[in-house]
């Protein structure tokens, strides 16, 4: 007998029920002292109040939602301990109804371009997905749509990457997210407008040209759909843990940054529930994995977008202690504040989260600062200051977007001006800028550098074609007027060490030499020219084995730099004259700086490695290489100060 087993799958479909807030009010009070603050916190925990503005400190306003069945009880408790309050929003459902009426009056059409999309209204998730596709298709030459994960309920998580592919590999990266708290609709709506402006408005073209952007329009998509179909004021994710009494986790308390600490709750029904484990939420886990996949310290700035209160916040949230980069964060915060204020006169308070707002553990920006090593990391709390709270009317989307865009533009400008400047941003090295005047040329052979990105990764020379050259380019480090055309350089135009038709024939060499000589002979204390690879510290001469008069002093300084470098990561740098340490070379920067510009302490650094990767050094070695090179530079600065005017 043949037995057939029929597997029948029953699918339970749970449709969201519209939650009514009829009779619900938002109350505002201001605790006068620490005891009052503690009492309002206890009342909140007792009744599982939805704090729209958390109890943070005496003298700071607290907003909380009071449902009809709790009004009498909470009012009695507050009055019994002598607390005053005002009804700030008398009917929450009325605001929701007004919002729904405005939304229902909107004629929904399928836009055919980014410009046709309506930025003056809020959009449900399916229309935001459509916007993502519009952008990715319309600007496909420099836009990539990434699916970086799925939500708890199985929806795709998308982000947009914008990189116009300029020749510079050092374009700063700015990462912006929105809607981790799903009831904060303005956070995402304002950014759709902002990125439209950056993509289509020539006034903001520089932002797309100069920066490599990542934009996550919706993190908490499941929750966002719930705010449209069920509970307009839902805040958390939609996950359900095996032992949870209530659904959802506060995704902005779920990051692995002092997770489960102060300012987050272990009770599943609380609005600030931190979840069963760090990054338990699919949305948080996938986003953190993507951010880390970009590499350590690769992102130059990160903004996580929220509402409301008009704040620009930075780390720490989990501690009132200042972050190591508090000075830089504060300066940049003020720059953004000033830019925002200039648009519509809106005042955004700036400062650390714990000091300005409240202590909050497990938040995005503390994680990006501590774990992803993003120095410039901010939480924006957009409009307003409480009149509408999370129910900001749609007619404020564009003006809020305009001022937020001004803030982002100010951040972008700061990043461009200060990118990768460790001495400017790290207090440990501020003495280097305080005690010496520095001149830094990031790129001499720019034309050749662009060629290594666009055509030939191993191109070495300039790209200038000579009148009779069979091949393009000159070895710029054989073109200086220091024993030019002597041994160690080639007369053949196709050679990698071709010295060029005349000394300083190359525009780059000629202009640099002219600039350096403008300081006057002997007025530069030290000169470094930086190369790779081989891990060497070289000094004159390159064109002869004869020792320079200051050999002992220059050699001892090289040894001190070697020792400082080795103490960082254990890397051994050989030091000595170029001619005897590697090979004879003529027409080089260091010999010219020594002979013509009169710089005694002149060195050629050959950075990592010793040949395993050669000129194709992996990017994950940039930071450790920089750390050890910085140690060598620091030691050189000490030598200069010890011997200055001696």
Protein model, in words:
With 646 residues, the chain is of the alpha/beta class. The protein has three domains: 25-90, Alpha-Beta Plaits, CATH 3.30.70; 101-419, Zn peptidases (Aminopeptidase, 3-Layer(aba) Sandwich), CATH 3.40.630.10; 433-643, Aminopeptidase (3-Layer(aba) Sandwich), CATH 3.40.630.10. The chain has 20 helices and 16 strands. The protein has helices spanning 34-47, 68-80, 92-104, 125-138, 185-200, 205-210, 221-229, 282-293, 326-344, 353-356, 364-370, 397-418, 422-425, 430-435, 446-454, 507-517, 551-569, 578-581, 589-595, 622-643, and strands at residues 25-29, 50-53, 62-66, 86-89, 143-150, 156-162, 173-178, 212-216, 301-307, 311-314, 349-352, 376-382, 526-532, 536-539, 574-577, 601-607. The protein has an eight-stranded mixed beta sheet with strand order 5-6-8-7-9-12-10-11, sandwiched between helices. Strands 2-3-1-4 form a four-stranded antiparallel beta sheet. Strands 13-16-14-15 form a four-stranded mixed beta sheet, with helices on both faces. Helix 5 packs across helix 12 (397-418), helix 9 (326-344) runs antiparallel to helix 12 and helix 17 (551-569) packs antiparallel against helix 20. 40% of the residues are buried.
Helices and strands in order:
Layout: E1 25-29, H1 34-47, E2 50-53, E3 62-66, H2 68-80, E4 86-89, H3 92-104, H4 125-138, E5 143-150, E6 156-162, E7 173-178, H5 185-200, H6 205-210, E8 212-216, H7 221-229, H8 282-293, E9 301-307, E10 311-314, H9 326-344, E11 349-352, H10 353-356, H11 364-370, E12 376-382, H12 397-418, H13 422-425, H14 430-435, H15 446-454, H16 507-517, E13 526-532, E14 536-539, H17 551-569, E15 574-577, H18 578-581, H19 589-595, E16 601-607, H20 622-643
Helix pairs in contact: 5-12, 9-12, 17-20
